[in-house]
Amino acid sequence: MTLPRYAYLGPSGTFTEAALLAMVDPSEVEAVPAIDVLTALAAVRDGDVDYAVVAIENTVEGGVTATLDTLAAGAPLVILGEVVLPVSFELVARPGTAIEDVTAVAAHSHGLAQCRRWLADRLPGAVHVSATSNAAAAGELAQGATGFEAALAPPGLGARLGLEVLAAGVADNAHAATRFVKVGRPTAVPAPTGADKTTLVVHLPDDRAGALLEMLEQFAARGVNLSRIESRPRSDRPGEYSFSIDALGHIDEPRMAEALMGLRRTNPVVTFLGSYPAATGYPTPITPGTSAEDFSEARAWVQGLRSGRH
Amino acid sequence: MTLPRYAYLGPSGTFTEAALLAMVDPSEVEAVPAIDVLTALAAVRDGDVDYAVVAIENTVEGGVTATLDTLAAGAPLVILGEVVLPVSFELVARPGTAIEDVTAVAAHSHGLAQCRRWLADRLPGAVHVSATSNAAAAGELAQGATGFEAALAPPGLGARLGLEVLAAGVADNAHAATRFVKVGRPTAVPAPTGADKTTLVVHLPDDRAGALLEMLEQFAARGVNLSRIESRPRSDRPGEYSFSIDALGHIDEPRMAEALMGLRRTNPVVTFLGSYPAATGYPTPITPGTSAEDFSEARAWVQGLRSGRH
Amino acid sequence: MTLPRYAYLGPSGTFTEAALLAMVDPSEVEAVPAIDVLTALAAVRDGDVDYAVVAIENTVEGGVTATLDTLAAGAPLVILGEVVLPVSFELVARPGTAIEDVTAVAAHSHGLAQCRRWLADRLPGAVHVSATSNAAAAGELAQGATGFEAALAPPGLGARLGLEVLAAGVADNAHAATRFVKVGRPTAVPAPTGADKTTLVVHLPDDRAGALLEMLEQFAARGVNLSRIESRPRSDRPGEYSFSIDALGHIDEPRMAEALMGLRRTNPVVTFLGSYPAATGYPTPITPGTSAEDFSEARAWVQGLRSGRH
Amino acid sequence: MTLPRYAYLGPSGTFTEAALLAMVDPSEVEAVPAIDVLTALAAVRDGDVDYAVVAIENTVEGGVTATLDTLAAGAPLVILGEVVLPVSFELVARPGTAIEDVTAVAAHSHGLAQCRRWLADRLPGAVHVSATSNAAAAGELAQGATGFEAALAPPGLGARLGLEVLAAGVADNAHAATRFVKVGRPTAVPAPTGADKTTLVVHLPDDRAGALLEMLEQFAARGVNLSRIESRPRSDRPGEYSFSIDALGHIDEPRMAEALMGLRRTNPVVTFLGSYPAATGYPTPITPGTSAEDFSEARAWVQGLRSGRH
User: Most buried by CB count within 10 Å: which residue of A17, A42, B297, C7?
Assistant: First the structure.
């Protein structure tokens, strides 16, 4: 039997691998490390793997911009699911090292940045050593590296490498989190769960002050809320913008379907990047007048009027 | 064979009768004069007549407010057609009367008001005599009334009564016009012509500054233009308002149907008063992205996305 | 001493006279009856009178359209106050007449229309006689007219004419009311009371679906509510519209002043027809963030930012 | 004399240093390398340096998210200027190396990602070696590193290190660019140039579908265009969002000042991050009715109305 193949930002030990493991049973998939997000997504497009797991928002490992732009350009890809992980490191060291012994800490520069205040408080004299990845820093430590006594590692990696955890929950911002998505080639959309997101890219027809408002009215007129919007300068048309959007709801729901139709009709490009269960699990808020029943009732009413039934 | 019966604001000779004659061949209908607009509309509701022709906008004979309110309250009625007539009188007198002989002019007070400047210019010394209707003034003149030598009459009435026309095209405002509608009981809506109007009454959910905006966004999101909007204080709920609206387009067109559905879903009361050919005959302006084809294409696109076709 | 002169729609006994008496002490003014609303307003413009009292909304005596159009065109006029009177008649007759004796009832056709259901219930067999005005019908009755035994008259008129009141509070709709305004030549605006209205006429820059929305956003962006909006076909430009608007608030309040400025900047014509105490006396609702203090605080904040104070 | 001190993302040789050099004459400043964006901004807040130059949009070196979040939180900082640099590398090697000799290329992982397709085309067999920074890769090469024969370096760095340029203009996307800003402590805002940007962070009052629309209406009602908008999950309030916005125009211009006042009044938090010359140099588009003269004229009009001048 062939296991489904998942590309992820490697090497083993990254936060992205942790996201992958939060989504699937590792015994049921073949995990394929990729050097970067673009390579992971290209592997899906090329059919080398079935899926990729990539960071898409608020990441400590970069790549968000690349993810959004790469998803929207090229052969169609869709998001099939998401998971949100807290940004939290473990300070790891070789067995026998005490926290007082640490004079230098290694990590990817983003990891060091995320823990800057913690390090200043707890290891005020320690030198910061920038590594090519957090996993690489921990791996070199396990193999006897001598330039530093400790590393910041994603939770669990230290234990797998035989290192000791000097401190857990290391992070400057207890609420910081990274959002990861599972991406695949388009197939039938996953069934709605009642707590879904729909991800889109929209190019506006022009850059008037009112054009963005009119685009958002297509959502508001159907009571669809957004959970994310980002303008992106269009590399193909300097001075113009596209908008990357997460909207709450599922394409199978009438209010989202009608909003999508409205966007499609009135904007030059609308790229659908999937409807999928939201990581929060919170049911989509339904404004009065926007439930599936409200749409059915309104449609039946118009049908009746056309036949003279008032 | 039974002719269709049409109620109109009588007596014979009113502008409303002229509107009726502009809509139908008089040999094919039975015209039934009514004392006022409410009576005419009640006769349709009661089945005493098949249709009524009533003034609905910018009238010289009053009744607009009554028309709008009466259409919206009670058993359903729908507008089936409209005609717009210029507001223009003839100054009529008994044969042999010269304009210099006129010392008093009779008409309904609204008719006098519409021609005030003309009368001041051309008959500066003449007394104005208020009659119960323009037709009554002309009729009394034909029958030998002595209190006035001339009357303001709708075009054609003088000739029918054996009076002479001293001046035609009498009006202070050369562009003033009255809009009349043909009203019936609900049946299948008349087929779209490409130059149609849809008349509605909408009650807003609340009186926030934004509620009117949100109601109008239901039209704007589908590119539907309005040709008339009037707030009307709700007699049943002091301090609240309903809105009487003419929108350009037909309920059989997707953009109007979707706008109606949106209104229905998000407002407590939406009363449909008909889709019918616009008197202007100007084709409905179609904003890019709002044609029937645009709606079909967008619907097919969403259907495709649901099955994984991008 | 010269008393201020007030024109009103005469003759004595009209609802408009009742409105005038509700606004001023009759011993302190000189009341000048006018044949119609246009004449009354022209008298103000010409300086023949100081003020006019005219019906502006939902009237039983017609003239609303004329009032709105005439206010907006010609030498500037402003509204200085308003009063709202219930639409309610008295059924009056000569002394000794019992309601059972009434076989015919006279009134202006609008008055008959307003009481049609009441008459059908209480005087089912009576003939309706259309008079040139309600006051005229009652006057003729007092002078011995023989074609009818009763008349519908504004409250109080019967008593002044020596007639008996057979029934009071006659009206089909217990909530119906007419709004009257006091109009004068522009001077300093009356001081704000906290419960004011501002009346405007606005011509839109074009007839796109979005142009009306953008005009209303000028109000919404400052939290200003509307209590009335009516589109009016422009007689000078067929196919274009002007909007007659009552907004809640006073031009001396920052949020109304800023909304007016916004309208002025973005529309070809904005005519200010006055800020004046609202008849309801209800304090203007103040949306959070739109009080005079909020405007002051925001202005000071921007001034501080310009100097580097954050 | 003391030179102004500028922090930047070091070490020497980064794109951020190139941005700094594009903004100032290096002989007139003291450039202070920082380990990351947070450290650079903290140095401004602490007074250790006068200014920082940091990437803020579309960067190849990460840190955008950190920049936006860090600017908005903590002691006030403002943006004083911006520069946009193309994303373009040089492939550098030790003198005597031919491009055919290259079996391994080193760079920061983001640099490798930005040039992935170029490398696949031109150096299809070469191994990619991830370094801690682009500058570090080039530096190690200059010092005789043996694991790779070439490095991707920001333009000019190779020459300074005595390396040869094997290829210039290396980039997958010829239009890709990074935006850098100069940040300082608040002082008087730089004078308007007619081609300015204003950067803001806004927290919405609630998460209704309409709240974002209402916020954007504050801009649209004054004709202010946006060049960037990004929602950012609020780490302090999960499920709520703030919006990072670049608007075209300057706080000294009436239309921007009034928009800022409107935002301030109607949203719980508005953080002003500066008005400064836009890198494009394109004059701000001025919608009809939104020039400074239009604001002055409208203000004078309202003042006149208050005194009875129409």
Answer: C7
DSSP category for residue B20: H
Is D1-85+176-187's fold the same as D89-170's? yes
State the fold for domain B1-86+177-187: D-Maltodextrin-Binding Protein; domain 2 (3.40.190)
> Of D163, D112, D120, D121, which is closest to residue D140 (Cα–Cα)?
D163
Write down the architecture of domain A1-86+176-187 according to CATH.
3-Layer(aba) Sandwich (3.40)
If one looks up domain B89-170 in CATH, what number appears? 3.40.190.10
Query: Which chains are adjacent to chain D, needing at least 3 Cβ pairs under 8 Å?
Result: A, B, C
- Tell me if D38 and A116 make a contact (CB, 8 A cut-off): yes
The minimum CA-CA distance between B262 and chain D, rounded to whole Å, is 15
Mean pLDDT of C67-87: 90
A5 in Cβ contact with A34 (< 8 Å) = no
The ipTM assigned to this model is 0.89
**What angle (nearest 5°) sits at the alpha carbon of residue B70, between those of residues B65 and B74?**
160
**Domain A188-310 in CATH 3.90.280.10:** no
Asked if B175 and C236 come within 8 Å (Cβ–Cβ), the reply is: yes
What residues of D are in contact with residue B214 (Cβ under 8 Å)? Answer: 210
User: Model confidence over A32-80: pLDDT tens digits?
Assistant: 999 878 889 999 999 999 999 998 876 544 446 668 878 988 899 999 9
User: Across residues C47-66, what is the average pLDDT?
Assistant: 76
pLDDT tens for C213-229 read 999 999 999 999 998 89
**CB neighbour list of residue D134: distance below 8 Å, 6 or more residues apart:** D13, D14, D15, D61, D89, D107, D108, D111, D151, D152, D153, D154, D157
Chain C hits for D298, CB-CB cut-off 8 Å, are 260-262, 264-265
What are the sequence ranges of the domains in chain B?
A: 1-86+177-187, 89-170, 188-310
Q: Is pLDDT at D61 greater than 70 in this prediction? A: no
Strand, coil or helix: C47: coil
The fraction of chain B above a pLDDT of 90, given in percent, is 65
Query: Any idea which of C12-21, D47-56, D170-179, D249-258 has the lowest mean pLDDT?
Result: D170-179
Smallest CA–CA separation between D270 and chain B, in Å?
22
Q: CB–CB of C35 and B112 under 8 A?
A: yes
D127 vs A302: CA distance, rounded Å: 64
Q: How far apart are the two ends of chain B, measured CA to CA in Å? A: 61
Window D:238-297, CB contacts with B under 8 Å:
none
CATH number assigned to the domain covering D1-85+176-187: 3.40.190.10
How far is residue C99's CA from residue A290's CA, in Å, rounded to a whole number?
Answer: 56
CB A198 within 8 A of CB A264: no
Q: Enumerate residues 173 to 232 of chain D having a beta carbon within 8 A of any beta carbon in chain B.
A: 210, 214
Identify the closest residue of chain A to B271 by CA–CA distance: A310
Contacts of B222 in chain A (CB under 8 A): 262
Q: pLDDT tens digits, residue range A164-199?
A: 999 999 998 777 788 899 999 999 899 999 999 999
**CA distance, residue B206 to nearest chain A CA (Å):** 13
CA distance C63 to chain A (A): 34
